[in-house]
Amino acid sequence: MKLQSDARAGWLFVLPALVFYVTFLVVPYALAFGVSFAKWRGVSLHLEFVGLGNFQRMFGDPFFWKALYNTAFFTVCTGLIVPVMALYFAVAVTRKLVVGARFFRITYFFPNLISQVAIAVLWWFALNPEFGILSNFLRLLGLADLPSWLGDPDWARRCVVAVKVWAAVGFYMVLYVSAIEGIPNDYYDAAKIDGAGEMQSFRHVTFPLLSEMMKVTVVFLLLNGFGTFDLVRIMTDGGPDRATETLATYIYENAFELGKFGYATTIAMSLFIITFSLALLSLYLQRKEAVEY
Amino acid sequence: MVALLAGLYVLSFFFRGQDEKQLLGDRVVEGVFFQGGYGMQWVWDSAAEFEKAHPDISAYVWGNPRSWDQTRPRFLAGNPPDVFWGIHNINFWVNLQDGLVAPLDSLMQTPAYGQPDKTFGETFFPGVLEQGQLDGRQYFLPIVYNISGIWYNKGMFDEHGWQVPATWDEFLALCELIKQTGNGIAPLTHQGKYPTYFGGIYLALVYKLGGKELLNAMDTLQPGAWSRPELIEAARLSQQLYERDYILSGTSSFSHTEAQMIWLQGKAAMIPCGTWLESEMINALPDGFEMRIMPVPGFADGKGGLGAMEASSDPAFWVPTDAAHPDWGMEYLRIMLSRKLAAGFVENVGSVQPILGSTDDAEVRPATRSALDAVEAAGGETFNFRFSSWYLELTNEFENALGALLNRDITPERFVERMEAMAERLRRDPDTLRFDSEPEQAVTAKASS
Amino acid sequence: MRFNRTAIFERLGENGRKTITQIIFVVYGVIVVFPMVWLFYTAFKPTHELFASAWSLPVEWKFDNFVEAWTEARIGDFFWNSLFVTISTLLVQLFVGSMASYSLAKYRFRAQGIVYYGFLAGMMFPIFLGIVPLFFLVKSLGLLDSHLGLIVVYAAFGIPFTVFVLTAFFRTIPTEIMEAGVMDGCGHFTLYWRIMLPLAKPGLTTVAIFTFISIWNEYILALVLLSSSHLRTMPLGIAVLQFVQFYEVDFGALFAGLVIVMLPTLLCYVILQEQITKGMTVGAVKG
């Protein structure tokens, strides 16, 4: 059709979006690449190029490694727990194993609607050893000598994972429910005829057809997990003693608290390289299998 | 649905937050201040006084608990306020190095507000101004002459007949006594979430063991200063308080206001803090509650005085270089730190500003009076660690490591190892601004002019 | 082996399994909903009552905290700010993004593929990478500390997702409709505006809903690009309120502020949840 091959019109339509995109995304990312090789206090435009100096410094920085470890810990834990829980819920709901499925579908999604900041403040208060509902609830059950949830390094980490899971499960459950509902019933009927019970029909029908989505989920969670900032910053501020420090909060600290913009960008570059590699890796792994139906 | 959204959208355009400063017109001086323990009334008072003295200029002043975090982008963008005070994550000296701070020398030579026979500079306690100087030039002014120590519940002490201890051993005996009393009263609590408060006790112990010489060495990052045995001993003594169960359970998670509130409720007998304590908790003070301060008890054979108090006038206020009206900012400081307003500060806020004569003109509260008396009782011997103002990263690591130490996650040896490692890191880092000068003479609370 | 495990599972019996599952669901349901419910009714308590007993329902249901949050803590201002910024972003983003998607889906021009994948690549880059240079870029454009600057940046960051969803959407619209439009005398823009865009409503709605939720709750970019207190959006306001409450120990206002932040999105969801779920299905089928 003639209209469609009018290249000029085509370009004109794309232009505004392109301008926005290039200016505010591409340019900063490109600049970031350069800045990571410099020292910059951000006061003037004066940058002092130090080659790989920042990277060297980063490798020798124990706080960086700690932040990296924490970030990986949060991301991996969340990436494993969330899909499993969401899948369990989704299957139970679609296979009519629970009463009030519709209610659960609606309410489980609630945490996804509220900002990470609000979630962080809510749980910060709920996990308060004195006034918070968790401690009070456990005391009601008779437990004493409770740990200081966010004040203890190990517990703080576990709490961060728990809250991240709490905030994410609903979304994936709804997603899986939609996907499962898209599976034609014939498959399940056929399985039943072959004598399969619940478990078996799950293993042989549901799971294989969902595997694509599961993989995407895991990838998505991994990519997102590496950017954890809001929650940690508000709930624990990286503490206690950097036990919950993530790469993102460490980058922010270096840039906007210590004024080390160059070094902060270097760490951000590393964060990017990690996430990008993970994304590529997952894309490669996904090429291997694709189940059609 | 869409109509509703459209309507709300139009409304939002008009109901958006208004820039109050713009509403005041052209002649505005802007001051941004840390909003915390001292409250904001003193800010409003100083603004009112400024506008009285300069009816043609409006004073737009506001506060925020994270004033530096919130305002920092404005500094980077080149439109900072005219006068500023921030306390968290701020390194005054780095800001100075970055060219963000205007020199105040001309201000110091101006006649004082309300005391034309003296220069502004002459109205300060002796020795205080040096803390805000670099290479002889004045850049920062203090807000308060702060005295820190251990606050105790006088009513509770009187009721049980407990005596204020003079030495650390007596202190431990007192803690044991309080613990045995039962009633669920713990000897000590502290602001667990912010180990820097307990740091007051820790550093006092270090000073009392090692004296001025050790303090100087630590402040100037002398190699090995942070691994000295006195620091290990002080760490051991700190942990011992937990081991002997003298600390109220749950302390490690208390924010400063929570811990202080719990102390006010009588669940603990003592708490470390500075002279801002009363003002900070003014809304939660039970009727008839009497608070008094005691020095962190020392050692008879220690190099630092038994009853020495931590006292300092740390840098606080400065006028940004790129301010729209730096001269008005300076004028604001001249008025805010005048004898008249300092007297008001002492009466209303309860803490002492290092302006001579301010305590004479005002009714000093008993809590504050106890602090001034304690300094006098120590023969005026005070101490002040400067590293917290000089090295932000060292201070952060100190707070983190101290928290871990108190949590019994690390040993005293590991604690000093970490501190020494951070000191070494800063020594090696060519970008860290170094202070090799000896701190100025101890600040004395010479209240009368 | 396999046979045994599943056999045991089967042996629990349909009812046994259902009961356990039901219990798990109810427990998790409580974990999800109760904190929010608790937040809600605690917001009606004065602070000292909160400290006295964390659990209990308020003695009296007072609106004081809400009034204080809305006026003194300026949550009201932040609410309007957020609304303004979010809707403005939506308008810009949807307009600019749909034009680009339409073009990429229906037109043919050179380097089209590069542009398309270029846009998509943006979804893979963490915000943190660009945040420092972005700050200074926005500053040099004079857009720092302004709603305009924030809107423009948000719109830019939203373009990859918009293009991703809408391009696929436009592709499904048959070319015949375009031809019919041309025969009626439509020019390029009229065709887009009058015919294609309305047909893309479901796609637009999906993008709008997701973008609304994400901008409404966005924190880090607002934190970095805004500094004046009167311009703050809700997440920023809540965060600052939290700092303030550390000192003033007036948690009542903080809780009320949180309720005000959460309520709009929760209510919208309960009312619109059909559409939202459908929108997610669109994404699910595509992805």
Explain the layout of strands and helices.
The complex is a heterotrimer of chains A (293), B (449) and C (287).
Chain A: H1 7-35, E1 38-39, E2 48-49, H2 53-59, H3 62-94, H4 101-108, H5 116-126, H6 133-140, H7 153-181, H8 185-193, H9 198-225, H10 230-235, H11 247-257, H12 261-288
Antiparallel strand pairs in A: 1-2
Chain B: H1 2-15, H2 20-23, E1 28-34, H3 41-53, E2 58-64, H4 67-77, E3 83-85, H5 92-97, H6 105-109, E4 111-112, E5 115-119, E6 133-134, E7 137-138, E8 141-142, E9 146-153, H7 154-160, H8 168-181, E10 186-188, H9 196-219, H10 229-243, H11 256-264, E11 268-274, H12 277-280, E12 291-294, E13 309-312, E14 315-318, H13 326-336, H14 339-348, H15 366-377, E15 382-383, H16 387-390, H17 392-406, H18 412-428
Parallel strand pairs in B: 1-2, 1-3, 10-11, 13-15
Antiparallel strand pairs in B: 3-14, 4-5, 6-7, 8-14, 9-11, 9-12, 9-13
Helix pairs in contact in B: 3-13, 3-14, 9-10, 10-18, 17-18
Chain C: H1 2-11, H2 13-42, H3 47-52, H4 64-70, H5 75-106, H6 112-121, H7 127-140, H8 147-171, H9 175-183, H10 188-199, H11 201-216, H12 220-225, H13 234-248, H14 251-286
Helix pairs in contact in C: 2-14, 4-14, 5-8, 5-11, 5-13, 6-8, 8-11, 11-14, 13-14
Structural commentary:
The complex is a heterotrimer of chains A (293), B (449) and C (287). In chain A, β1 (38-39) and β2 form a beta hairpin. Chain A has a single domain, classed as Orthogonal Bundle (MetI-like fold), CATH 1.10.3720.10. In chain A, α2 packs across α12 (261-288), α3 runs parallel beside α7 (153-181) and α3 (62-94) packs across α11. Chain A starts with 6 loop residues before the first helix and ends in a 5-residue tail after the last helix. Chain A is 71% helix and 1% strand. Chain A has helices at residues 7-35, 53-59, 62-94, 101-108, 116-126, 133-140, 153-181, 185-193, 198-225, 230-235, 247-257, 261-288; strands at 38-39, 48-49. By secondary structure, chain A is mainly α. Chain A has a two-stranded antiparallel ribbon. Chain B is α/β, with parallel strands linked by helices and 449 residues long. Chain B folds into two domains: 29-144 and 314-364, Periplasmic binding protein-like II (D-Maltodextrin-Binding Protein, domain 2), CATH 3.40.190.10; 146-312 and 381-428, D-Maltodextrin-Binding Protein, domain 2, CATH 3.40.190.10. Chain B has helices spanning 2-15, 20-23, 41-53, 67-77, 92-97, 105-109, 154-160, 168-181, 196-219, 229-243, 256-264, 277-280, 326-336, 339-348, 366-377, 387-390, 392-406, 412-428, and strands spanning 28-34, 58-64, 83-85, 111-112, 115-119, 133-134, 137-138, 141-142, 146-153, 186-188, 268-274, 291-294, 309-312, 315-318, 382-383. By secondary structure, chain C is mainly alpha-helical. Chain C folds into two domains: 1-31; 67-286, Orthogonal Bundle (MetI-like fold). Chain C is 79% helix and 0% strand. Chain C has helices spanning 2-11, 13-42, 47-52, 64-70, 75-106, 112-121, 127-140, 147-171, 175-183, 188-199, 201-216, 220-225, 234-248, 251-286. The longest helix of chain C has 36 residues, at 251-286. Chain C starts with a helix and ends with a helix. The interface between A and C is large, with 97 and 98 residues.
